[in-house]
Amino acid sequence: MTCENYPEWDLTKPLPKLPVPDLMGTMETYLTIMSSVVSPEEFRRTEIMVEDFWKDNGSGQMLQQKLKQYAETKENWAYSWWMDDMYMKARLPLPINSSPGMVFPRQFFENRKQQLRYAARLISGILDYKTIIDAKALPVDRCRHKQKGQPLCMAQYYRLFNSYRVPGYPKDKLVTKETSRNDADSHHIIVACKNQFFVLDLLLNYQRLSEDDVFTQLERICDMADEGAETCQPVGVLTTSDRSTWAGARAEMMTDMTNRESLSALETCMFVLCLDKSIPISFNHQRSVDETSMNLRDDVSLSTQMLHGQGSKINSCNRWFDKTMQLEWNLSSNVENVIAAATDSIDRSVQTSASTRRFRLGRVDNIRANSPAALEWVQAMVAKNEASVSLNDAYCINIE
């Protein structure tokens, strides 16, 4: 690993606020984007409306002034609007549409003990990382270009283990709590195995469980999951429903004390560890000839397992998508019907980045880059015209 030499920055000073872009620049960018998604006639009408909007003493100037006044009262003027419009108000199911996934380097397990040994080691490593986060001791991320070395916002890291997305209507709610070493709710995880959920306390008599102790507990959980596999209800699949349907089912479940206790355990855990069943090679992409011939799973199969579990018959029910002892449930016939509908939906289901982390409460997010350059690239890829796009052009589209 190479060491970066950064210019001097005063890390004790707060990050600057996200600036409000000037109105003319915003409108010019808007027209550029619209030129690639509307017809020429519609674009001419759009230009007329934009010109009327930003003229002197027009509504655009008035709204721009109000936005600047609003920005003065907020740490990040865009944060709450972005959070609501991009996430909390979105009614689409979380798998595929919202929840991200990543693939670790391949591990090869010959039996369940090897899988659980690795899982215990992974849990231990995550707890080490959480200790650093709780102590606010993470090294500050820095920009690598354009004002190289400028500190980046670290707020996302400190919400990693203490946030939960509660389904609601007309919008979800992001619950984030402050954690402390005395907070009992902060010391358990949920282990999902064979569509069942188990609480694993990682603190005993104020001492963290050793890696061997975690392994022993994981073995016990797997044995319990084997016993209950035939009779359990796949409650986790509810979190794959559209958000309004899941919100209604959750509200009904919360009327029962057993369900409230189980939901509380899930919603206050540090994270959910999913012990999945193995995936057959037949889930490989048809073009992954080399991997399939060597009896290896390809990247497509690995990625889809992380994104959505590959359907209710595989691992989609072995998830609790609302969260980045066995729990018990008392389910009404209506909730059971929602489970059946969610199971059917996930079985049928089966981006360009931008960053404002230079500013307070900034983060990396996806942007829907409907730019002329992106349109030209897509048209070239699907042979709609004879334009040739170089790899450098495509790379620029991806990082702008």
Automatic annotation (TrEMBL):
SUPFAM superfamilies: CoA-dependent acyltransferases (SSF52777). GO terms for molecular function: carnitine O-acyltransferase activity; choline O-acetyltransferase activity. The keyword Lipid metabolism applies. The keyword Cytoplasm does not apply. It comes from the Eukaryota. Keywords: Acyltransferase, Fatty acid metabolism, Lipid metabolism, Neurotransmitter biosynthesis, Transferase, Transport. InterPro entries: Carn_acyl_trans, Carn_acyl_trans_N, CAT-like_dom_sf, Cho/carn_acyl_trans, Cho/carn_acyl_trans_2. Residues 18-328, 352-386 form the Choline/carnitine acyltransferase domain. One of its GO terms (cellular component) is cytoplasm. Its EC number is 2.3.1.6. GO terms for biological process: acetylcholine biosynthetic process; fatty acid metabolic process; neuromuscular synaptic transmission. Signal peptide: none annotated. Pathway: Lipid metabolism; fatty acid beta-oxidation. It catalyses: 4,8-dimethylnonanoyl-CoA + (R)-carnitine = O-4,8-dimethylnonanoyl-(R)-carnitine + CoA. Belongs to the carnitine/choline acetyltransferase family. PANTHER family: CARNITINE O-ACYLTRANSFERASE, CHOLINE O-ACETYLTRANSFERASE. This is Choline O-acetyltransferase.
